Amino acid sequence: MRTGRPKAELKLTEEEQDQLRSFTLSRTLPNALVARAKVILWSAQGQSNSQIAQRLSWTNATVGKWRQRFIASRVAGLYDEIRSGRPRSIEDEQVAALLNKTLGSKPKGGTHWSVRTAAGESGISKSTVHRLFQAFAVQPHRARTFKLSTDPFFVEKVRDVVGLYLNPPDHAMVLCVDEKSQIQALNRTQPVLPLGLGYVEGVTHDYVRHGTTTLFAALDVATGAVFAKCKSRHRHQEFLSFLRSLDQNIPPDLEVHLIVDNYATHKHARVRTWLAQRPRYHIHYTPTYSSWLNQVERWFALISQRAIRRGSFRSVKDLVGKIDGFVRNYNDSKRPFVWTATADSVLAKIARLCSRISGTQDYIPLK
Q1: Partners of 219 in the β-ladder
Q2: Which residues, including other chains, have CB under 8 Å from residue 228's CB and lie 6 or more apart?
Q3: Could you report the per-residue pLDDT of 197-209, keeping only the tens digit for each?
Q4: Residue 202 DSSP symbol
Q5: What is the pTM of this model?
Q6: Which of 80, 141, 242, 320 would staple 216 via disulfide (CB 3.0–4.6 Å)?
């Protein structure tokens, strides 16, 4: 009795079995690749091509094809081969000329290139220019801001602050302290259109100003808890009042390390005197123009995004009440920010930035 041509033996290593099983459980891989992985696993378990074909609604020939592809090339054989496609319609020289012009020059009467202006200048179609910009990650329509610190002790201050984040002292509390000034109590002139299925929340573009408040905040680096107070003004008197309130809420047996920026309020003579009279307080200044080193700035971004920017407030009292409510809810589910950058990695990143900016080579920070 004829049983057909004998199949080549298919054996899997443990690594191949694990990889193929992960393929079959994936929710992101192409469905065809998942099905091919199942073919190989079932074949290794002894199922015949006809049984597998019936389970997948394939033909026996298709099952045999992928079985042979795996035997010949292992897991790599399950992927589709690269197809040639239609020949390119533009030459490498045209691509290079487009990129050189976009990166090295400005359009006449403009500050940056767009897809249309680049297409009109190069003679390449808009859709092709768009694809090339995407392929080479060229984004002339975007810009990002930066500011290099001019602090002569930049390196020392970076190492000091980052050291507190990565290796905080024992029996001490590390607090990131700052203030968000001039928060406006803006009241929209018309009611907010509610969020609905198929359309976003709608707010009027104009508003009525009802005054401002200043939010003083201290972020506990270890726990993520935030101590915050709103004040009517932004002077050293308000900052001292905030420090006194903070002092009453900190256990007396703990050392306190305050991370602050170089704002004049933080360096006022009365503030220095108050700190000098309390030896357990240690103040650490971030370098100039380096607010990104202060973790409380990230928390300010959160409260702005979630509670202030899209809010509508009838008065300053209403605004302060909403801020206090956000702080209470935040502390109920508080989580610390995870800082992973070392001082060396921060300085290396600044050095890479300086190497790309003309005239800043002498600024590159040394380790």
Answers
A1: 176, 226
A2: 215, 216, 217, 218, 323, 324, 327
A3: 888 888 888 889 9
A4: B
A5: 0.68
A6: 242
